[in-house]
Amino acid sequence: MRGMVFDIQKFSIHDGPGIRTTVFLKGCPLKCLWCHNPESQQSGQEISFMPEKCIGCGWCFQNCPQKAHVMEKDKHVLRRELCIRCGKCTEKCYAGANTLIGKEMTVDDVIAEVLKDVPFYETSNGGMTISGGEPMAQFKFTEALLKEAKKHKLHTCLETSGFAASEKLLQIREYVDIFLFDYKESDPDKHLEFTGVPLAGIISNLLEIDRLGSKIILRCPIIPGCNDTPLHFKEIANLAGRLSNIIEVNILPYHPLGKSKSARIGKEYPLENNDFTEMPEEKKWIDTIQDMTKVPVKNG
C-alpha cells in the first residue's frame, strides 16, 4: 500500500491533543479560496520553484529533459507548460531553488517515522494526525495508516473537510479517536462559491458520525471579507450545540502564507490584500461565538 505524502510534521501541537506527528497527504477535491496548503490540492508530485534562491550552477538547464528551465531577460524561468514534473531538476539543486513536493511512501515508511516520536506521545497524550489536502481523497491509504497506527496503540486524529462518501467515513470511524472536522461556511451558496463543493453532504456526514458516537473538534477557518459574518458565527454556535460528542470549537484565523506557496508552484492565489489576523480581532471572533454556545471555543 503506497500513498502520496507531501510532509510529515514532527512536534505538532495544533492538530489534536498533546504532541503529535501530522502526516500531510496530497490531493483535495476542494478549491478553497484561502487554501493555506495549495501544494496539497493536486494528487501528483509538483515542482516548487524559487528563482530568488538560484545560484546559477546550471544543473537544471543541463539536465531537464524538457528544457523547461530557461533564461528570459536575464532571469531564470521555469516554463511550466513544458514541465512534466519528473523532479530531475531537484536532484542536485543544492540551493533549494527547485524542490519536489510529494513523495510516494508505503504505510510502513510513514508509521516508522511516526513511531520515532512515541516518547512524546506518552508524556503528552499525543499521537498521529492525518491531514492534507483531504485524507479521504486517498481513502485506502488513509484507512491503512489508521489501522496500522491502532496496532501500535497510537491515538489518532483525522483532519477532514467531510466531503467524502458517507460509507467511507463510517468505514474508518472505528480507527479515528477524534475527527478534526472543518466547517468553512454556513450558507450553502457561499460554501459552493468559496470551496467549489456543496455543503449539504458535509453536514450530513458530520451529523452521522456524531450520532454514532465519534468525538469531534469543529475547526472553523475565519477569513476576513468572506465568512467573518455575524450569521456565520451564529451558525457555528448552533451547529456546535447540535453535536452530542463535540469536544470544542477551534477558530483558525486567516494567514496569507498560501499566497507565496501558490507562486512557488505556478498557481494564482485568488485572495488579495489579506494579511495576518490581528490578535484583538481573533479574540473578538472567539468571544462572539463563545457567548452563543456552552461548547468551549478556542484558537486552533
Can you walk me through this structure?
- By secondary structure, the chain is an alpha/beta fold.
- It has helices at residues 59-63, 107-115, 118-124, 139-151, 166-172, 188-195, 200-211, 230-242, 257-264, 279-290; strands at 2-12, 20-25, 46-49, 69-72, 75-78, 98-101, 103-106, 127-131, 155-160, 178-182, 215-222, 246-253, 297-299.
- It has a 9-stranded mixed β-sheet with strand order 7-1-2-8-9-10-11-12-13. Strands 3-6 form a two-stranded antiparallel sheet.
Task: Provide a brief overview of the structure.
With 300 residues, the chain is of the alpha/beta class. The chain contains 10 helices and 13 strands.
Task: Give the topology, please.
Blueprint: E1 2-12, E2 20-25, E3 46-49, H1 59-63, E4 69-72, E5 75-78, E6 98-101, E7 103-106, H2 107-115, H3 118-124, E8 127-131, H4 139-151, E9 155-160, H5 166-172, E10 178-182, H6 188-195, H7 200-211, E11 215-222, H8 230-242, E12 246-253, H9 257-264, H10 279-290, E13 297-299
Parallel strand pairs: 2-8, 8-9, 9-10, 10-11, 11-12, 12-13
Antiparallel strand pairs: 1-2, 1-7, 3-6, 4-5
Helix pairs in contact: 2-4, 8-10
